[in-house]
Amino acid sequence: MCGSTRRSAISAASGSCARAPACNSAISSTQAPPPSENPWAKKLGPVGPIALLLAKGKFLLTALFKLKFLLSFAAFIGLYWAAFGMKFGIGFAVLILLHEMGHFIDIKRRGLPAEMPVFLPGLGAYVRWQALGVPLETRAAISLAGPLAGFFASVACATLWWQTGHPLWAALARVGAVLNLLNLIPVWVLDGGQAVLALSKVERLVLLTACLALWLLLGQNMFFLVALGAGYQAFFGGNLPERPSVAITIYFIALLTTLGVMISLLPAHALGTR
Questions:
Q1: What is the mean pLDDT of residues 49-76?
Q2: Please, which residues have CB within 8 angstroms of residue 142's CB and are 6 or more apart in sequence?
C-alpha cells in the first residue's frame, strides 16, 4: 500500500513537472503586460502622458524663442546692410547683439530666467526677463551690464582701428560708444532709466554734477542730455529706494566717463564706410 502510494505520488509529481513549462508559457503569454513605450510614462503613472506633452511643449517653445531671435536678428542685419552697406551693417548689428548679450549673460549668471534678445529693425533690441521680486540694485546692475558690454565691444573695434588704420573700425567704435552713452540717459525706456531707480536723491544729484562736469571737460553735448535726465529724476522722479547704492553710483559714472573719453579719442569723419 505504501509502495503503491509512493509510486503514484512520484508519477503525479513527474506529470506535474512535465506540464509545468507549458503552463508557465501559457501564463506568461496571456498575463505579461506589454512594455511601456517610454520609461518615464510608466514611472509617472497616469500623469505620464501629460508630463511628456509638457516637456515637448517646452522644447517647442524654446525652439520658437530661438527662431524669433534668429529671424529678428537677420531682419535687423538686412535693414542696416541696405542702409549702410554690408560691412558696416553687419558690424553695427553685432555691436547691438553684444550689448544685449551683456544683459542676457548678467541675468543668467544670477540664476534668473531670461529669453534670447529680440531685435526690432530701426528701433533697437531688448531682452525679456522676469524682474518681479528682484532688488533694485540688482536690476540696476543688469541694466548697466548692457552698456558695459557695449563699451568693451567698442574698445575691440578701436583696437582694430589703431592696428589696421581702417576707417570702418573707427566708425563702428565711435557709433557703438555714442549709442551706449545715449542709452544711459535716465529716462524710462533706456538702461539709464532703470539704473537710476536704485539711486537716492543725493546720488542722483551726484550723477547730475558728474554729467555737467563731463560736459564741460569733454565738450560733448550728449552729457547735457544725460544731465537733464538725472536732474529730472533728482527733483521730480519718484520711487526713491529705501537705501542708497554707492556701488551703482560709481558704476554709472565710471561708464559715462569711459564712454566719453573713448568718443573724444575717435575720429568723427569715418562714418558712411561701406
A1: 68
A2: 103, 106, 107, 110, 129
